Fold this sequence. Notes:
Transcription Regulator spoIIAA, 34% strand
Amino acid sequence: MAVKIVTNGSCVTAYIEGEIDHHNAPALRESIDSAIEKSRPKTLKLDFGGVSFMDSSGVGLVMGRYKNAARYGGEVEVLNLSRSAERIMKLSALENFVRFKKSAEAGRMN
């Protein structure tokens, strides 16, 4: 599991690659939360374009980052979910809190 975090003005984007499960979700949370605390972004983008597997830990990852970003008045966009991951997120009613989008830069960690 890898995450590359890019800050551009008032936007922080976390490009996530690999698997999201209960073993590696804590490290992802720490990295992303650190960027939220440091930058206090208006928009946090979580790019799932490089994610090959996700269990319910992915839902918790998104919900927790939503709560942290909201403390600073920020909002969350979830980008490039696979069909199965999008279905899991929507069944969890996350679309009531975050926006789902597609992006031309799916999964790029350059």
